């Protein structure tokens, strides 16, 4: 008796992602290399972020709708919002793309964590709330 054995080879394409969480007070758009990956208009909720591991530029747009304003994010590769982020309150085309020259942009200003109390609690101590200015009343 003959037996025919077939062998199925499965190819797995390993795509790895950088994961993390982000929020902003109030309306957030999260980009990786210019591509939109997450959007939220709820500053009280964290958005799960999952972006390709070869991402070069992470960029967050945030619109304040009144009151305090800030952006907070932490990713599992150690990237987190802090004073090393550059920011601007003026739109410039290509701002979220690879190769954008941000040398004219200012470093972010750390906001008072206490203003948000325990909101975005899982990021407390992991990342700073940042904004373009030390302006507790909000506004860009
Ligand atoms: C800011 O965060 C980055 C990681 O995103 C880290 O490498 C850097 O040391 C931090 N800077 C300060 C001043 O904490
Ligand atoms: C970036 O812009 C600054 C001025 O804001 C300029 O001095 C610098 O040469 C630019 N760098 C590149 C690589 O274009």
UniProtKB/TrEMBL annotation:
Residues 1-24 form the signal peptide. Keywords: Signal. Gene3D superfamilies: Galactose-binding domain-like. It comes from Patella caerulea (Rayed Mediterranean limpet). This is Uncharacterized protein.
